[in-house]
Amino acid sequence: MATGRTHRPATRSRGIPEATVARLPLYLRALTALSERSVPTVSSEELAAAAGVNSAKLRKDFSYLGSYGTRGVGYDVEYLVYQISRELGLTQDWPVVIVGIGNLGAALANYGGFASRGFRVAALIDADPAMAGKPVAGIAVQHTDELEHIIESNGVSIGVIATPAGAAQQVCDRLVAAGVTSILNFAPTVLTVPDGVDVRKVDLSIELQILAFHEQRKAGEEVGPDSGGPAAAARAAVADDRKGPDGDMPAVMPA
Amino acid sequence: MATGRTHRPATRSRGIPEATVARLPLYLRALTALSERSVPTVSSEELAAAAGVNSAKLRKDFSYLGSYGTRGVGYDVEYLVYQISRELGLTQDWPVVIVGIGNLGAALANYGGFASRGFRVAALIDADPAMAGKPVAGIAVQHTDELEHIIESNGVSIGVIATPAGAAQQVCDRLVAAGVTSILNFAPTVLTVPDGVDVRKVDLSIELQILAFHEQRKAGEEVGPDSGGPAAAARAAVADDRKGPDGDMPAVMPA
DNA sequence: CCATCTTTGTGCACGCGTTCACAAAGACAT
DNA sequence: ATGTCTTTGTGAACGCGTGCACAAAGATGG
């Protein structure tokens, strides 16, 4: 998982637990794969294995959506694909804007998995005037000045921020002011948003640090628990003495 | 957050809860920013605000690490930076390999936030022979054939998978066999790994779907609860009829 | 040295999420 | 039609994580 959700401190929207919502896309992916192999039905056991979860958990998750299974048989793959898609809101089209067309922004723009899930890249936006007009993934990059116009005329409600950390909050404010109510943030900053706006954060740096923690633990403390001492502390402190808190860039952009 | 953790079903390593570990990098980032502004001490209240969490939660998190604060004053910024860095294992150097140098792999390779956190890109690996030798982010891409050699000679224990979904499990197996024990997976697949290996998954597609769910809910069911009906189901099913389950690419690569 | 004031560290209660285990439901064979 | 067998759907127990609220600790001023 990238990183945790912001806001919405466990708002169980209409009885469907957050934890369940987070797993639905996982089930959907597994079901789509089965659908392509023309598998008509799956048991909770099989599907759970494919999705990498516990079968009891899966059944309980589905029970929040309704009773879509047949006892003694399992679940109808196609029907379940539809039900989950509908529940997630993927049967409608979601125009999305990507702000900050650096290395990461470009990678996102090129991602083919958007369309198949109901997402459509409505526009690419960058603050660099030199980028304006340049085609990325077949779409001409537009300047930040046009942000509000683009959002409003396309009815965009989901925005992706892939700018440097310094620009993220400002971009966020403009997105929200223009009508965006869901934001996927790749910049290493805590975004402040008004109530009613959802923010999800993806941060590679954090993921790696969590892995490092477990890795260190697995290494079995070969080096003493206080290895390095103050010297290491100084090194750690100095290492960051170059630019912003985190290189000032999203966890995936060039320095 | 990107997506959830795999394996390690809440293994509270040495008494530090997983949830706390996941927040430590957040605190570290906020503290680093304060350190650069030469702020000597912070209260739990201030730091919590900067990190976007509850102050009680922050204090409890820190209490797992020990008593590093001074009542009536707060926490010493430099000292806390060091303690958290040490706890996360960031005072040592972590060589990392990135496998799959597509759009995303290149973006990751260019990310400057690695070095400042103790991570070092030891090698870039790609299966395409045409890529071999090409410099990306100043590092020459190496062919997959050399994977085992690279891992072993550099003592790499953390691997990043940014390959298409179809290749991910195979790459994963090879990484693990060569000695990698922590994997950050960007490919849209459930990886199977032996016990003792940690996998974390980052998946943009899933993040967007979760946002879409909340967005739909916020939209207030303007369209009827059964909008679209079977037609939409058919559309959803057909839309995916192009390639792999998810375009067969990591949530951030070009199609 | 004492009083006051700030801020930490934590005991406790509550709620969400996970898991077990089983009864109910239905398919399928005879 | 009846019995058997498979698999779902869920009640209940448990454990983790969160947040409140407060006592203890220490700084600071007189």
TrEMBL record, chains A, B:
- List keywords of the entry alphabetically: Cytoplasm, DNA-binding, NAD, Repressor, Transcription, Transcription regulation
GO biological process terms on file: negative regulation of DNA-templated transcription; response to redox state
Annotated NAD(+) binding lies at 100-105
Q: Which residues bind DNA?
A: 26-65
Can you say where in the cell this protein is located?
Answer: Cytoplasm
Residues forming coiled coils: none
Instruction: Report the principal subcellular site.
Output: cytoplasm
Q: Does the keyword Kinase apply?
A: no
**Gene3D superfamilies of this UniProt entry?**
NAD(P)-binding Rossmann-like Domain, Winged helix-like DNA-binding domain superfamily/Winged helix DNA-binding domain
The record's region (Disordered) falls at: 219-255
Molecular function terms in GO for this entry? Answer: DNA binding; DNA-binding transcription factor activity
Ranges for domain CoA-binding come to 89-190
| Top-level division of the source organism's lineage | Bacteria
Instruction: Cite the InterPro entries for this sequence.
Output: CoA-bd, NAD(P)-bd_dom_sf, Rex_actinobacterial-type, Rex_DNA-bd_C_dom, Tscrpt_rep_Rex, WH-like_DNA-bd_sf, WH_DNA-bd_sf
Q: Which GO terms describe its cellular component?
A: cytoplasm
Functional note: Modulates transcription in response to changes in cellular NADH/NAD(+) redox state.
Family per UniProt? Belongs to the transcriptional regulatory Rex family.
The subunit field of the Swiss-Prot or TrEMBL record says: Homodimer.
Provide the protein name: Redox-sensing transcriptional repressor Rex
Q: Which organism is it from?
A: Streptomyces lydicamycinicus
- Write the gene name: rex
